[in-house]
Amino acid sequence: MHVCFTIDTEFSIAGAFADAALRPVGVPMVQCEIDGRSQGLGFLLDCFGRHGAQATFFIETVQRHYFRDDPMRALARRIAQHGHELQLHVHPCWAVFQHADWPRRVRLAPRQDELAGRALDSTIALLRQGQETFAAWCLPAPQVFRAGSLQHDENLYRALAAVGIPYSSNIGLGVFNCGLADYQLRAGRHVRHGVVECPVLTFADWPGHAKTVSISGTSFAEMRGLLDSAHAAGLELVVILSHPFEYVQSYGDGFRVLRRHAVNQSRLERLCAYVAAHPQRFQASGLAAAAGQPLTAASSANPLLRGRLWRTAGRLGTQVLYDRYGQWMLARRAARMP
């Protein structure tokens, strides 16, 4: 079974839409440097390297409308040098920065970041901008797409087919549910408008509640149990979601006061070690490599895996306590800053 670690690598609007005096945050959102050490991208690359895991980094490209000096390019090339897949990620909200009157446009239409419900031609233009960016950065053409905030609808798949992107990972029902019957996908590989969709694994962490698997939102015990259940169910792949900034805690505006997120770093470290320790069952691989395997009758399996309430309770308790402790520590650090 392929285990696909997927990292949405993106910059942040950082409140600029609410207050035009604030400025988006670029490289620090990815590097997450603390005392000269990268606890975001640097930690991820080191962790995957220690465990021999290939991952997929979804690179957001529309931010070029704001960051005209292309700081993402160097980050993408660094990731590629470590042997990981680079695929396309789009947050449409960045496109508003191509207009000098962007604050007025945001006031008139605050929902700038939605792909669901967007006109087909507009989505096609966003995808082609991403493809052109990959070409300008001398990167291989993207084969997999992920929508910002996992927003999707049928037009998105029509647009992907139109621009020739064969695979996607847009669906995580615990994050966004478009409500369409054909898109209630929790696992597996499913063809929609000629595009192979590989949803982020969604499970029931308690009865009636859908939870999409992410490093920041799922404990190691839960993820280990889900991998075992997925393998027993005969699933071909499991997709896990993450972001570089999940591996630090932040305080205040500007992403300047940070501390290492020891809980999330430990989760990823332990999960990578678990996958590496069971090569007869699991293989950490890029998403394009997994999605491109020949489809079989088992590919469209769409089970609802179930967690254990005691694991869910343990995760919730840990997150509440650690978040409160982290914010207290960060507030003390901020108070000492000049």
Number of domains: 1
The name of the CATH topology is TIM Barrel
Say which CATH homologous superfamily is assigned.
Glycoside hydrolase/deacetylase
Shape: globular
Helix content: 25-40%
Q: Strand count, sense and closure of the main sheet?
A: 9 strands, mixed
Helical run tally: 10
Pick out the low-confidence regions: none
Strand residue percentage: 15-25%
Order of helices and strands: EHEEHEHEHHEHEEEEEHEEEHEHEH
Radius of gyration: 19 Å
CATH architecture: Alpha-Beta Barrel
Instruction: Summarize model confidence as the mean pLDDT.
Output: 97
According to DSSP, the number of beta strands is: 16
Alpha-beta classification: alpha/beta
| CATH structural class | Alpha Beta
Structure description:
The protein has one domain: Glycoside hydrolase/deacetylase (TIM Barrel, Alpha-Beta Barrel). 36% of the residues lie in helices and 18% in strands. It is built from ten helices and 16 strands. The strands form four sheets. Strands 1, 4, 5, 6, 7, 8, 9, 12 and 15 form a nine-stranded mixed sheet that branches. Strands 11-10-16 form a three-stranded mixed sheet, with helices on one face. Strands 2-3 form a two-stranded antiparallel ribbon. A hairpin with a 5-residue loop joins strand 13 and strand 14. Helix 2 runs parallel beside helix 8. The radius of gyration is 19 Å and the shape is globular. The N and C termini lie far apart (51 Å).
